[in-house]
């Protein structure tokens, strides 16, 4: 770890520490929460109000930090023995925090509390935040990937909307029909700069995998991964999709919201935002199939600072955030699919004009977001080499070979740690 911190980073860290410091003694009178998405504020505040009815003397402070800065601030504060009491955890960072004893093992609290049952939640998100069968983050909401589409562009071209029968061939065929270079309209967004809504899904749809089930082998240097990336490259070469340079320069979602992309694979948490922008023009369908159906499934959990002063009180707050009422509120606000399976219909009914069942169905046939102890390290290699290939600096085969070798080396080191 570097001994010196730049001025801007120091300011960010000091701000985070000030907002999320733990008390150093005496009776606990406040709890600090940290997360990154202010769109969840209504749901979070509703759970806090319910918690304060039982704990009126406890002040709960919420800090929202942009995702780009969130993990740096969180790691710095927790590593220094401070930080928020309760905070959002995601899959790519989970193993690092759990194995470095930065977050509390929740199983002892769960075993002593009959009101919390792991079986109530979608298994994928419980597995995502479990280590050695112990849960380290209480499931809050889940997400999956669907095909967002612009009804107006389909209507103008006289083309039927996508449905559950679609395959990769339909992406290429219809995408070509919808592409209109004279008006700067692309038929489809072939994500090569974003993994979760893009190529992760397509590798699995080709019959491959990102990481083996035993977390020892990369799936990038395989025929299935090559098939997926070759298909994405063909869509770009034919002008059906923006190039990676376009995707880096202009966010794919902005291209879609400005009616310049007809079809966009995207994460369920963006549904309300897109529907608010596009209204009845906006539609959602299942991801088109390759050899198999596949949609990457992820979710967010509430973790507890291992060094929080009052762990029982922090657990009480986590329960209010992740229990049935907390999950119901996250569904009623339309933010995302509640992690409690029985509340799926609450989310589905939030926007009758959009087929939200697509994302619920994906929980049954979806593929868990790929993680290992050092996810961030091999994802850095992955991003660098894929961007290099699609910028024309090397072939796809060369890039995938480098990712596979680099990832396998990291996974081997993980096994020996």
UniProtKB/TrEMBL annotation:
<keyword id="KW-0813">Transport</keyword>
<dbReference type="Pfam" id="PF01547">
    <property type="entry name" value="SBP_bac_1"/>
</dbReference>
<dbReference type="InterPro" id="IPR006059">
    <property type="entry name" value="SBP"/>
</dbReference>
<keyword id="KW-0732">Signal</keyword>
<protein>
    <submittedName>
        <fullName>ABC transporter substrate-binding protein</fullName>
    </submittedName>
</protein>
<comment type="similarity">
    <text>Belongs to the bacterial solute-binding protein 1 family.</text>
</comment>
<feature type="signal peptide">
    <location>
        <begin position="1"/>
        <end position="18"/>
    </location>
</feature>
């Amino acid at each position: 770890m570097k001994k010196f911190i730049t001025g801007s980073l120091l300011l960010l860290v000091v701000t985070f520490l000030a907002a999320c410091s733990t008390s150093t003694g005496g009776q606990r009178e406040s709890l600090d929460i940290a997360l990154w998405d202010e769109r969840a504020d209504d749901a979070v505040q509703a759970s806090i109000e319910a918690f304060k009815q039982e704990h009126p003397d406890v002040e709960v402070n919420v800090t929202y930090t942009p995702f780009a800065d969130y993990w740096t601030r969180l790691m710095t504060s927790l590593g220094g023995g401070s930080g928020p009491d309760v905070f959002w955890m995601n899959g790519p960072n989970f193993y690092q925090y759990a194995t470095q004893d930065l977050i509390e093992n929740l199983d002892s609290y769960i075993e002593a509390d009959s009101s919390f049952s792991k079986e109530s939640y979608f298994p994928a998100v419980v597995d995502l935040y479990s280590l050695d069968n112990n849960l380290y983050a209480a499931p809050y909401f889940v997400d999956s990937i669907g095909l967002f589409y612009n009804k107006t562009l389909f209507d103008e071209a006289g083309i039927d909307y996508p449905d559950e029968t679609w395959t990769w061939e339909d992406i290429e065929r219809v995408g070509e029909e919808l592409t209109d270079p004279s008006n700067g309209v692309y038929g489809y967004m072939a994500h090569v700069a974003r993994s979760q809504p893009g190529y992760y899904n397509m590798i699995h749809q080709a019959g491959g995998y990102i990481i083996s089930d035993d977390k020892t082998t990369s799936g990038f240097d395989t025929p299935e991964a090559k098939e997926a990336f070759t298909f994405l490259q063909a869509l770009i070469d034919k002008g059906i999709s923006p190039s990676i340079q376009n995707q880096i320069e202009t966010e794919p979602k902005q291209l879609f919201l400005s009616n310049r992309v007809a079809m966009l694979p995207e994460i369920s948490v963006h549904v309300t935002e897109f529907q608010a922008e596009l209204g009845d023009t906006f539609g959602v369908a299942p991801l088109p199939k390759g050899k198999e159906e596949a949609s990457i499934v992820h979710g967010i959990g509430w973790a507890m600072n291992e060094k929080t002063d009052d762990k029982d009180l922090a657990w009480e707050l986590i329960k209010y955030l992740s229990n049935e009422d907390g999950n119901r509120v996250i569904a009623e606000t339309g933010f995302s699919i509640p992690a409690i399976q029985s509340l799926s219909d609450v989310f589905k009914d939030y926007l009758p004009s959009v087929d939200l069942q697509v994302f619920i169905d994906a929980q049954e046939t979806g593929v868990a977001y790929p993680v290992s102890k050092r996810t961030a390290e091999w994802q850095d290699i992955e991003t660098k080499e894929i961007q290099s290939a699609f910028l024309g600096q090397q072939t796809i085969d060369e890039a995938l070979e480098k990712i596979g070798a680099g990832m396998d080396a990291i996974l081997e080191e993980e096994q020996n740690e």
